[in-house]
Design a protein that fits this description.
Blueprint: H1 4-18, H2 25-41, H3 46-60, H4 63-66, H5 71-86, E1 102-108, H6 114-127, E2 132-137, H7 144-155, E3 159-160, H8 168-182, E4 186-191, H9 199-212, E5 216-222, H10 227-240, E6 244-248, H11 257-266, E7 270-274, E8 282-284, H12 287-294, H13 300-310, H14 313-324, H15 330-342, H16 346-351, H17 356-360, H18 369-380, H19 384-388, H20 395-405, H21 409-433, H22 439-452
Parallel strand pairs: 1-4, 1-5, 2-3, 2-4, 5-6, 6-7
Antiparallel strand pairs: 7-8
Helix pairs in contact: 1-2, 1-5, 2-3, 3-5, 5-12, 6-7, 8-9, 10-11, 18-20, 20-21, 21-22
Length: 460
C-alpha cells in the first residue's frame, strides 16, 4: 500500500503517547516533530505539512486533551480528523447532469494511465447501472484508439472513434451527439497526454472543453510521481479549471504524499483511486477511510463493500450452513478461495483490516501467493471422491496427488492436516453462536478453547 512507511512511523509516535497518563506541552511538541518528519518523508508538500501540524498542535494542547483520561487517544483522534479535512472532508462524487449525457473530459500527462483509467471508470459506471460511451480522442499516441476499443470490448461498452485523421475537437463533438441519440447517460472523452507547458496541446484541450462544455474535468495523475503530481495538478487546474483528480498506481511502492497534498494545494478533490491493474480495480476516494488506513485503523467499510459486490450471497449462505454442519468439502474450499480472490490481492485486503500493518511488519509474516497456487493445484489433483471424503486419501493416493500437482508428499500431508484442523475450528466457531454457546460466557469459553488449539492455521 502507498502509505505503509508513513503508517508505521505514525503508529510508533502514537504508541508512545498512548502509554502516558498525562500529556505535557513538551510531549505534544515532541510527537508533532516526529509526525512532521514522517509527513515530509512521505513527500507531502512542505506548506501543507506546516499548516497541518499547526492545526493539530493548537487543538492538542487544549484543555479537553489535558483533562482527558486517555490524552494519547484524544491526540490520535485530532490527527485523524485533521487528515480527513486535509484530503477533502467527505467523498466528492462524480457529477450527474440534469440533462443527460453527463460529459467527463479526461486529462493528464503522457504515461499517467489515462486511457486505462477511462476504461476503468466506464466499468465502474456500468456496475452502477449507467450506460457510458467511450470517445477515443487521443489521435497522437500510436495504438491509443485501439487500446480503448479493446478495453471497451472487454467490458461491453461502446467506443466512438473517427480514426487519427480527424481533430480531437470534432471527435468529441460527434461523440457527445451520438451519446444523445443512443441514450447513453455518460460520455467519457479520452484525450492525448500532454505536458502543462505544451502550449499547442493545452490550447487544443481548451477547445475541446469549449466545444462540449464538460460536467467533469478529471486529471489523471500517477501517485508514484509524488510531489510532482501536485505541481502538475496545480498547473492543469490554472489552465483548465479541473473538477477532480484521479490517482493511479496508489497500490504501488509510493510514499503517498500526492494524496495528502493535492486537495490542499489545488482545491480539487480526489474523486477516485486506482488500486491495481485490473479493469475493476478503481474505487471512489473516501477521505475518512483513507485517513483510517494511514493511521493503521483499517478500512472495514471498503472491505464490506467489496464483499457485498463480489461475493455471491446464496453461495455464502450455503457455505455457512456446511461449515456449521461439518459438511465442508475440498470442493467448497476451492469455491471459497475463488470468492476471496474476487475481492483482490490478499495483501490489499489485509491493509483494510485494523492493526494488520503491525503484523505485516513482522519479519516472520509473509503472504505467499505462490503457496495459494500450490494449494489449489493439490486440491485440483484430487478425484471427485477424494474431495468429498478426504478420509479415503491413503498413502498411495497422497503420492499420486503430490506428483499430479507438482508438489511434495509433505505439502499434501500438511494440507490434509490443516484442512481437518480448519473444519474443527469452523465447527467450534459456529457452535459459539448457537445454543451450545449459552450466551456470552459459554461463547467466550468456546472461543478460548478454539484459540488454545495448537497449529490452528488456514491451509494456505
Amino acid at each position: 500500500m502507498a502509505f505503509e512507511g508513513l503508517t508505521t512511523r505514525l503508529q510508533n509516535v502514537f504508541g508512545k503517547l498512548r502509554g502516558k497518563g498525562k500529556l505535557s506541552e513538551d510531549d505534544v511538541n515532541e510527537a508533532m516533530r516526529e509526525v512532521r518528519l514522517a509527513l515530509l518523508e512521505a513527500d507531502v508538500n512542505f506548506k501543507v505539512v506546516k499548516d497541518f501540524i499547526a492545526k493539530v498542535k493548537e487543538k492538542a494542547v487544549g484543555a479537553e486533551v489535558q483533562k482527558s483520561f486517555t490524552p494519547g487517544m484524544v491526540v490520535v483522534d485530532i490527527v485523524h480528523k485533521e487528515l480527513i479535512e486535509l484530503m477533502g472532508g467527505s467523498q466528492a462524487k462524480l457529477a450527474k447532469s440534469n440533462r443527460p449525457p453527463t460529459i467527463v473530459l479526461m486529462a493528464g500527462l503522457q504515461g499517467a494511465g489515462k486511457t486505462t483509467l477511462t476504461g476503468k471508470l466506464a466499468k465502474l459506471l456500468q456496475s452502477q447501472n449507467h450506460k457510458p460511451l467511450l470517445v477515443a480522442g487521443d489521435i497522437y499516441r500510436p495504438a491509443a484508439i485501439k487500446q480503448l476499443e479493446v478495453l471497451g470490448g472487454q467490458i461491453g461498452v461502446p467506443v466512438f472513434s473517427l480514426g487519427d485523421k480527424v481533430s480531437p475537437v470534432e471527435i468529441a463533438k460527434q461523440g457527445v451527439q451520438l451519446a444523445k441519440e443512443q441514450g447513453n447517460d455518460y460520455v467519457l472523452i479520452d484525450t492525448a497526454g500532454r505536458l502543462q507547458i505544451d502550449e499547442a496541446l493545452m490550447e487544443e484541450i481548451k477547445q475541446i472543453h469549449a466545444a462540449v462544455k464538460p460536467d467533469e474535468v478529471l486529471l489523471v495523475v500517477d501517485a508514484m510521481t509524488g510531489q510532482e503530481a501536485v505541481n502538475v495538478a496545480k498547473s492543469f487546474h490554472e489552465q483548465l479549471e479541473l473538477t477532480g483528480v484521479v490517482l493511479t498506481k496508489l497500490d504501488g511502492d509510493t510514499r503517498g504524499g500526492a494524496a495528502l497534498s493535492v486537495k490542499a494545494v489545488t482545491g480539487c478533490p480526489i474523486k477516485f483511486a486506482s488500486t491495481g491493474e485490473k479493469i475493476d480495480q478503481l474505487e471512489a476516494f473516501h477521505p475518512d477511510r483513507m485517513a483510517s488506513r494511514i493511521l493503521g485503523m483499517g478500512d472495514m467499510l471498503s472491505l464490506i463493500e467489496k464483499a457485498q459486490s463480489n461475493i455471491d450471497a446464496e453461495k455464502a449462505k450455503d457455505l455457512e450452513r456446511k461449515m456449521r454442519t461439518a459438511e465442508f468439502t475440498f470442493d467448497d474450499f476451492l469455491e471459497q478461495m475463488e470468492q476471496v480472490r474476487k475481492l483482490g490481492p490478499l495483501d490489499q485486503l489485509l491493509d483494510m483490516m485494523p492493526g494488520m500493518n503491525k503484523i505485516k511488519g513482522n519479519p516472520n509474516f509473509k503472504i505467499d501467493e505462490k503457496q495459494i497456487a500450490r494449494t489449489e493445484a493439490i486440491v485440483k489433483s484430487m478425484t471427485k471422491a477424494e474431495k468429498q471424503k478426504p478420509d479415503i486419501i491413503n498413502y498411495s493416493r497422497r503420492k499420486r496427488i503430490a506428483a499430479g500437482s507438482g508438489t511434495s508428499l509433505a505439502e499434501v500431508n500438511r494440507l490434509l492436516k490443516q484442512f481437518e484442523d480448519m473444519k474443527k475450528m469452523m465447527k467450534q466457531f459456529t457452535g459459539m453462536m448457537g445454543p451450545k454457546g449459552k450466551g456470552p460466557k459459554g461463547g467466550m469459553k468456546a472461543l478460548k478453547g478454539m484459540l488454545g488449539g495448537k497449529n490452528m492455521k488456514f491451509p494456505f
